[in-house]
Amino acid sequence: MAVSPSLRSARLHYAPLSEEDFDALHDIMSDWSVVRQLGSWPWPPEPDFTRLRCRPYRGTGFIYGVRLDGVLIGTNGVTDGEIGYCFGRDWWGQGFATESSRVVIEQAFNTGLTSIAAKVWDDNASSYRLLTKLGFRETHRFSEMSKARGIETGSIALVLDRADYA
């Protein structure tokens, strides 16, 4: 999947993560209210895990560091056909997740994907609202292990088809 090395939207700049992002990303991932909503991040925060994530994604898809005025405020990307994002708590409620998700959805569809999957914990109403606002539709509910929470957690699967987004 060919992706742009760097993108811009109205307020934000997107580029792959690098070693220079460690301090900012680790600060974001040291906030329980952020990490509890993610599927694969450990709690308590592990610096070595964060360092592994502070480099360009090499799998199928892409992950961008999302920057505002040069400051890393979160991440957003599509990997293995699934959208994933997180933002530092100071940046919640300001439209950054919506703005950046539109950018990564366009990027993913421009690289040939015909649908994008998403998952949210069933207690993450804000993320569920964001995804449905973007056109994602719920497909089913299930339980899976949350690495940070350390327990089986209710999850909601959603999908966005290219035809529905256009």
Mind telling me which CATH architecture this is?
3-Layer(aba) Sandwich
* Number of helices in the DSSP assignment: 6
Rg, nearest Å: 15 Å
- Catalogue the unreliable spans: none
Indicate the multimeric state. single chain
The beta-strand count equals 8
Largest sheet: 5 strands, antiparallel
Q: What portion of the residues fall into strands of 2 or more residues? A: 25-35%
Element order, helices and strands?
EEHHHEEEHEHEEH
The CATH topology turns out to be: Aminopeptidase
What does this structure look like?
With 166 residues, the chain is an alpha+beta fold. The chain has one domain: Aminopeptidase (3-Layer(aba) Sandwich). It has 6 helices and 8 strands, in the order E-E-H-H-H-E-E-E-H-E-H-E-E-H. It has helices spanning 22-28, 32-35, 47-53, 96-110, 125-133, 162-165, and strands at residues 7-8, 13-15, 61-68, 71-79, 82-87, 115-121, 137-146, 151-161. A 5-stranded antiparallel beta sheet has the order 1-2-3-4-5, with helices on both faces. It has a 3-stranded antiparallel beta sheet with strand order 6-8-7. It starts with 6 loop residues before the first strand and ends with a helix.
Features:
166 residues; 3-stranded antiparallel sheet; 5-stranded antiparallel sheet; single chain; 8 strands; Aminopeptidase; alpha+beta
Q: Can you lay out the helices and strands and say which pair or pack?
A:
Elements (H helix, E strand, L loop, with lengths): L6 E2 L4 E3 L6 H7 L3 H4 L11 H7 L7 E8 L2 E9 L2 E6 L8 H15 L4 E7 L3 H9 L3 E10 L4 E11 H4 L1
Antiparallel strand pairs: 1-2, 2-3, 3-4, 4-5, 6-8, 7-8
Protein name: GNAT family N-acetyltransferase
Keywords: Transferase
Pfam family, one: Acetyltransf_3
